[in-house]
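Q: My labmate handed me this sequence with no annotations at all. I'd like to see what the chain might look like in three dimensions before we decide whether it's worth expressing. Could you predict it?
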Amino acid sequence: MDYKAFYDDVIGWINQANQAAAKYGMHDEQFWAWVVDSSDKLCRKYQNHQLTIKQMLMLVRWLEEVYESMRERS
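A: Here is what I predict for the chain of 74 residues:
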């Protein structure tokens, strides 16, 4: 696996996640659909390599924690 290419894609995904959150809001189902869809595409791009799956799961959990933190402050 080309780790540099993968982590460049991860950086791109994080930037796109920020844009999707700004566009839809983290409370919107469209945002979470984008998260699931794009995570799946990135994992498949790297043949579901175990590192890829674990990295994306970590990022999705991180987004969930950010969302929960925002809800608690509201």
